[in-house]
Amino acid sequence: DGGITQSPKYLFRKEGQNVTLSCEQNLNHDAMYWYRQDPGQGLRLIYYSQIVNDFQKGDIAEGYSVSREKKESFPLTVTSAQKNPTAFYLCASSIGGDIYGYTFGSGTRLTVV
Amino acid sequence: RKEVEQDPGPFNVPEGATVAFNCTYSNSASQSFFWYRQDCRKEPKLLMSVYSSGNEDGRFTAQLNRASQYISLLIRDSKLSDSATYLCVMNSRTSGGGADGLTFGKGTHLIIQP
Fold it and tell me: How far apart are CA B106 and CA A4, in angstroms?
């Protein structure tokens, strides 16, 4: 079955460490997105990519980096520059643009210890 | 004015009742509208798209009112399994292009009580 897979489900990071969250899709979708969700808050866009080897900053890109070397993969690195990284991270993909809505992965819950 | 506004609730509704949520938006250039459902500590899942003519899927009906800039979701004969947070979502692209991505409301929390 086609889908979008995020790993790990839970991640613990020490202060000052960089961590990378994985996102893989086999839906043949061109566009992929990273969102962050904090308790009681809406989803906020971190980065998005509409095509391989190209990506754009979203509303809260500071302290994060991404790459899009393959159509299927869009990993997110949370760097030590991100001051408040504890959150629920959601990866999504779409056929192209946003007229059909997005399909989400099951998320990664990152906690700084 | 916030881009997407929803009443956070919670809405406590007895099983079998009808419940309706509204969501207002500020970007008149928005073209695509959706309702997503999100269960506790899970990812959002697309419930239905919202069209100008209104659309129905079983017990769920969605409506779009462009003049007043709101969308609505009606749930009839509510079930215990309908308990969730319902997110109002729309594209945030301006009429002249600009940032891609959907804009998500903070959600309305619904609790169906037996």
Answer: 23
Nearest CA of chain B to the CA of A92: how many Å?
A: 10
Which SS3 state, helix, strand or coil, does residue B82 take? helix
Contact A34, A23 (CB under 8 A): yes
The reported pLDDT for the residue numbered B98 is 43
Residue among B43, B46, B91 minimizing CB distance to A106: B43
Cβ distance of A99 and B91 shorter than 8 Å: yes
DSSP label of B10: P
pLDDT (0 to 100) of residue A27? 94
Confidence of residue B2 (pLDDT cuts 50, 70, 90): low
pLDDT tens by residue, A4-25: 999 999 999 898 899 999 999 9
Residues in B touching A98 (Cβ below 8 Å)? 32, 91, 93, 100-102
In chain B, which residues have their Cβ closer than 8 Å to the Cβ of A58?
Answer: 99, 101
Q: Which helix (H) or strand (E) holds B74?
A: strand B70-75
Q: Indicate the average pLDDT of chain B.
A: 89
Give the residue on B whose Cα is nearest the Cα of A33.
B101
